[in-house]
TrEMBL record:
The keyword Cell wall biogenesis/degradation is annotated on this UniProt entry: no
Molecular functions (GO terms): glucosamine-6-phosphate deaminase activity
Annotated ranges, domain Glucosamine/galactosamine-6-phosphate isomerase: 15-228
Name of this protein: Glucosamine-6-phosphate deaminase
NCBIfam families named among the record's database cross-references: nagB
Organism whose genome encodes this protein: Salinicoccus sesuvii
Family label: Belongs to the glucosamine/galactosamine-6-phosphate isomerase family. NagB subfamily.
Functional note: Catalyzes the reversible isomerization-deamination of glucosamine 6-phosphate (GlcN6P) to form fructose 6-phosphate (Fru6P) and ammonium ion.
PANTHER family membership: GLUCOSAMINE-6-PHOSPHATE ISOMERASE (PTHR11280:SF5)
Catalytic residues (positions): 67, 136, 138, 143
Length: 239
């Protein structure tokens, strides 16, 4: 695991964007795993700017997102579909039919998780997976206790996660209580992982991800077992 410390949120975002940019321009074909949440927001901004300034052709890029809330339609303002459209896809020219997220409004959720896992496999797996981390050490929406051999699945969100994400909704009651997420094995199958961590509220989760014994109770500790993880963390998260 390579740990790169940077001064602040913006420095983290620029370095992350540069890392993804380099991978895009140096690949003949690339499957990018993408994350949502507040952490990667500025990375998407910088990345879109770099790609547009240099008029980079993106026809070789495919994207698969980590997760989506259950029960929110694609056009719901707080759905991850909307997040990705607003913050990234609408700003760059990745072909529309190359971008994928789980369908949280699917009637048959079991069929949907199976479809999504198959889709990732049919793309040839993820080359570079961008990740954030929850305060309780979750990655994607894999909450503490999720089996390490999990594939894409439906999860019940913990109270901590529901409360943490309530800031994006009008009231906490509007936060969905379930989500579809790539599983821990799905994430570990990515050839490279880029984990972004910012802010003092993530300090404990980061410290534990690096130093705690690997345990299903602390999902992010599984990353200690991956061969190619780069962590970009800012001073507040590292202090
Ligand atoms: N499902 C997302 C994760 O993918 C994200 O990494 C994490 C941290 O979010 P934030 O970056 O807003 O702190 O929680 C959310 O629940």
């Amino acid at each position: 695991m390579e740990l790169r410390g940077v001064e602040d949120y913006d420095a983290m975002s620029v370095l992350a964007a540069q890392t993804v940019y380099d991978k895009i321009v140096n690949s003949e074909r690339l499957v990018l795993g993408l994350a949502t949440g507040s952490t990667p927001e500025a990375m998407y901004d910088h990345l879109a700017e770099m790609l547009n300034e240099n008029e980079v052709d993106l026809s070789h890029v495919y994207t698969v997102n980590l997760d989506e809330y259950v029960g929110l339609a694609d056009d719901h303002p707080q759905s991850y579909h909307q997040y990705m459209d607003t913050l990234f896809f609408s700003k760059v020219n990745i072909p529309k039919d190359h971008t994928f997220l789980p369908d949280g409004s699917a009637q048959d959720l079991e069929a949907e998780v199976e479809r999504y896992e198959q889709l990732i496999a049919s793309l040839g797996g993820v080359d570079l997976q961008v990740l954030g981390i929850g305060r309780n050490g979750h990655i994607g929406f894999n909450e503490p206790g999720t089996p390490f051999d999990s594939r894409t699945h439906v999860v019940d969100l913990t109270e901590t996660t529901v409360n943490d994400n309530a800031r994006f909704f009008d009231t906490v009651d509007e936060v969905p209580k379930q989500a579809i997420t790539m599983g821990l094995e799905t994430i570990m199958n990515a050839r490279s992982i880029l984990l972004l961590v910012s802010g003092d509220e993530k300090e404990e989760a980061l410290e534990c991800m690096i130093d705690c014994e690997v345990s299903e109770e602390l999902p992010a500790t599984i990353l200690q077992l991956h061969r190619d993880v780069t962590v970009i963390a800012d001073d507040e998260a590292l202090e």
